[in-house]
Each structure stands twice: as C-alpha cells, then as structure tokens.
Amino acid sequence: MKRVYLKELKKMVPVKVMSVGLALIVAIVMTFPGSALAKEQWTFKFPTFEPEHSLFSKQYWHWWCDRVEELSEGRVKFEKYPGQTLIKAPDIFEAVKDGICETGLFTIPYEAGFVPLPTAKELPFSFVDFNTHHYMWLQFMKVGLQDYFHSYNVHCVADSAWDAYSFWTSKRWGPIEKLEDLKGCKIRSPGGQMSEACKAMGAVPVAMPSPEAYTAMERGTLDCLTMPESSNIAFSLEEVTAYICRPDYATTGVPIIVNLDIWNSLPKEIQDIMHQAGEEAYFNCSEQIMKADTELIAPIVKKRGIKVVDLDPKERERMRKACAVVWDNWLEKNGDTFNGLGKKMYDIVVRTVGRP
Length: 356
Prior knowledge:
Layout: H1 6-12, H2 15-30, E1 42-47, H3 55-71, E2 76-81, H4 92-97, E3 103-105, H5 130-143, H6 145-150, E4 154-158, E5 167-169, E6 186-189, H7 192-200, E7 204-207, H8 213-219, E8 224-225, H9 229-234, E9 243-245, E10 256-259, H10 260-265, H11 268-304, E11 307-309, H12 313-322, H13 324-334, H14 337-353
Parallel strand pairs: 1-2, 6-7, 6-8, 9-11
Antiparallel strand pairs: 3-10, 4-10, 5-8, 5-9
C-alpha cells in the first residue's frame, strides 16, 4: 500500500477538513502527560472570611489569585469563596493544612495558641510602616519561619499588609483619651498579641467573629472594636461607633498559604509565580490601605459625625510602656520554640524597631 504524505494528503482532503483533523490530533496529544505540547493545569479552592467587596478581598487575597492566573497564563485557576461561604475563619488554616482546600489564608491571631511564632509580627507598638514591617517578615523567613510553616504542612507564599489597630468606641462608653479610659472596656479583639496588649492596658478583650461585632456593639455586649479600620468599614461598623482613638498600637497579618503537599507537587515556575504574586500583592495592598485612609475611611467617618480623638503623645507612650510586659511574656513563652527560632525572631523585631 502506498504511503500518503502530508503534501499528497492536501490534494486528497479539503483544507477545512484537514485543519479540523490536525487540531483534533493536537488536542489529543496535549492530553497525554509528558507530551511536549501538554501544559498541566490546576484549579484550587481559596476561602476567605471577609466579604467579596472588602479592601483585603479585592486588593490582597483575590488580587493575588488573579495575579497568579495572569502570570501563569491561565494554567492556575482559583475558585474563590469569600465571606466564610466555604469554611469558617478560625478553621481555614487547618483546612489548608489537612488538604481540604489547596490554598487559603492564615489568620495569625486566630491561630496564636496553635501556631504561635508568627505572632512576633503583632508585638504591640512594633508597627512603624509597611516597608519596615515587611522587612522584618522577610528576615523571619531567612532565619527559619518557612521551615516552621512546613512543620505544619503549609507553605507561606505571601506576607500581608494590614492597617494599624485603633479603638472604635460606642457612644455609651465614650472616647479613649488616656490609658485609664481603657480600664474595664470590653473590646472585640481577634486574639493573639492584640488581646494581650488590651489586657496590659486594662481592657477586657472579647473573642468574637467579625460579622457578630455589629449586633454586639448595638446591644452593649461590646464597648469597643479593635480591628483594621478598612475591615470595620467592610462590616459597616462605623454605624455603631461614636469615637475613634488611634494609638496605632498593633497590627497583624493574614498571609496566604498553600498546602505543602500541593506546593511540593508544583513545578518551580508555578512556585516562583506564586511567590512573585505574593510580593506584588503585599505592596498593592499596602498602597491601597494608605489610599483608603484618605479616600474611603476619612469621608465615611466625617459623614457619620464620628469624633476622632487627638491622642496626646504622652498618653500613647504610657500605653506603649504598659505593653512591655507583653513583650517579656512572648519571649518567655516562645523564645525556645522550634530550636530557638522564637528568640531569633524576637531579636529581629528589637533590632529593627526597639521595644517598649
């Protein structure tokens, strides 16, 4: 039987039919693993706890997902589940660790009792600016924080920028103008070092999911909120707030993590893309936070008639000194953790910003 080569085949088969046939052959070849034409694709679930419209959802978590999709040219896709629609906020870390979802976020204060070392990021009055805080995080990684994450079966791909924490009080409680005004104040706090700082300043931290804070402020179960101000806006908490005091006493982070088994299965080019997108997401989010302070939060605060307390620097210093015990307790509790990694991280913070 005579062999029919491509140039002869063109004479025998209409061009359109041959084009369809070749396309079909290429498609079939691409389905075989190891094919030179094949490009593996992945779809990952990504749960978050804030609403889809919040600054952090739009400018950080989902922004990272979109950037990874863009850089990977669609090889990586994400199914986004905002507002705790897939997993409750306190359970997301464990869900990623256990492989229930492949990617997600890590709420540092929620996991303070389980994964304590990242709370070095939250030591009270250690926040200076976004660049300095990110520098400390990168130094943490250099001395072994990524290995620490690996011991929990997760890989961290992005540090997170977060507003400095302030005090939003109800009309019933009144303004925070001095350290004594915090005594006995019931404050919604996410946990971690923010709760410890509130205790040190005389307040009573109350653990409560963000979506429940509005009703609690209305009913008087809470007197005060301490959250990132952009998050307060996302949950409409300005509607139950009369005063704002801004000692900028703490900040936290909600980094992005990937299940370690999934991470190890990815080619290096995809891993590099995720890290690159993580760095870009950090700086995008920090830029958007600074913009939101003037373009979003300030107009809303003014419109609602909320009084912003002009805190005396001496009172802020009194608050800062009251929190020195939090630093001491953190080092005593965590310094020896993971072969002394806690002490190394603590020393990085002290060298970078000093301590109370």
